[in-house]
Amino acid sequence: MPFHSCIIIPATTSMLSSTSQMASLAVLVFLVVCATLASGASSVRVGLTRIHSDPDITAPEFVRDALRRDMHRQQSRFFGRELAESESDGGRTTVSARTRKDLPNGGEYLMTLAIGTPPLSYQAIADTGSDLIWTQCAPCGAQCFAQPAPLYNPASSTTFGVLPCNSSLSMCAGALAGAAPPPGCACMYNQTYGTGWTAGVQGSETFTFGSAAADQARVPGIAFGCSNASSSDWNGSAGLVGLGRGSLSLVSQLGAGRFSYCLTPFQDTNSTSTLLLGPSAALNGTGVRSTPFVASPAKAPMSTYYYLNLTGISLGAKALSISPNAFSLKADGTGGLIIDSGTTITSLVNAAYQQVRAAVQSLVTLPTTDGSDSTGLDLCYALPTPTSAPPAMPSMTLHFDGADMVLPADSYMISGSGVWCLAMRNQTDGAMSTFGNYQQQNMHILYDVRKEMLSFAPAKCSTL
């Protein structure tokens, strides 16, 4: 996650066309904003799609590329009004977005939403490990990446506005230190992630959620990044939607006290599920387990993350010899474990990872193979033939504070091209561990931000 600062510049009619040149300043801006749902809507429903970068890439190559992105992301982390919400839906409309895994062999999930008036639909990465909402904007020069959807053009929208420097929604107001801003000034940003960067101008716009006319809701005044320059690391999407704890995230801007999603299976490239934000996000029935969030450090970027207390791991009936404090969040902000929809492969602090690795090894009789080049993973086995099915493996149980999460073998092992690997990696001691989206597949997950609780239940997300 980036270090944040801001720059104040005059906003002119040519400002948006010049942001690609301004991006070379590499100025980092953090936006602090607040908005509210339009009247009559109390929840947001968003569809999810998993990103697939290249249909010709093999499964091991996909894992290798996803792991490389995850490691860069991990390294970068290390070194308005509130929505009125009750315990029930109160008869209000549910607002949502469809979600689905991305292009074949990709590692993220996309949510579908629309921006502007008239609304232009686009897909963006759903990321619980960051806050900023952004999309590419026209005009966009050589530093923009190819995207499947048309570029959003603020000049074609009747509801676009540049976020003023002295707005209470802008961090630039703090930089002014009470001084009057230049006429028409606006804040530029350059947001850096572990997987890439994006730069542009802070704007305010109306967002539309829901695919069918009956469940659509238009939400005015959403602060977002209008990007005119980006790295090329966002294949299959047109931007990113932060769902973290920070005030810039969609969750915070909507004042949504809870949200939920169900990530479709990794090998399923066609099915969709739904991301819900607001009181209609709920888990019911048997099999629901709940664990409290660990209080996040006040310092950015750790304040963005959803920390969990993982107290142990079992493989089958065997409890692994892992210290209950292995995943504890330290007073200095190091350590801990977060749940992150924008990271693919789960990373575990090395002491715990080595126990998991040894337990898997004790159960598998296949010959090991060096998968470091082809997959980037540490423990891989050679299957008899490229089409051979992997042997049966017991479930893995993650023992969270007050709740056990049971992962079938397909959620912690991954196979392809005759290679079968443990889909986890070790994390340097001191750095935080991350519960990635590969392990979240086919799990219905509810983030109750107000009650500080994560709930989950196994589900067939493709049919949910």
Count of discrete alpha- or pi-helical segments spanning 4 or more residues: 5
Alpha-carbon Rg, integer: 22 Å
Number of strands: 29
Structural class from helices and strands? mainly beta
Instruction: Kindly report the average pLDDT value.
Output: 81
Distance between the termini: 33 Å
Largest sheet: 19 strands, mixed
Strand content: 25-35%
- The helix content, as a percent range, equals 10-25%
Shape descriptor reads globular
The poorly predicted ranges are: 1-6, 10-41, 75-93
Written account of the structure:
This protein has a 19-stranded mixed sheet that branches. Helix content is 10%, strand content 33%. It has helices at residues 19-22, 59-78, 172-176, 250-254, 350-363, and strands at residues 7-10, 44-50, 96-101, 109-115, 120-127, 133-136, 161-162, 185-193, 196-209, 217-230, 239-242, 258-262, 273-277, 289-294, 307-308, 310-315, 318-319, 337-339, 346-349, 368-369, 380-382, 396-400, 403-407, 413-416, 419-422, 424-427, 433-435, 443-448, 453-458. It has five helices and 29 strands. By secondary structure, the protein is mostly beta strands.
SSE blueprint:
Layout: E1 7-10, H1 19-22, E2 44-50, H2 59-78, E3 96-101, E4 109-115, E5 120-127, E6 133-136, E7 161-162, H3 172-176, E8 185-193, E9 196-209, E10 217-230, E11 239-242, H4 250-254, E12 258-262, E13 273-277, E14 289-294, E15 307-308, E16 310-315, E17 318-319, E18 337-339, E19 346-349, H5 350-363, E20 368-369, E21 380-382, E22 396-400, E23 403-407, E24 413-416, E25 419-422, E26 424-427, E27 433-435, E28 443-448, E29 453-458
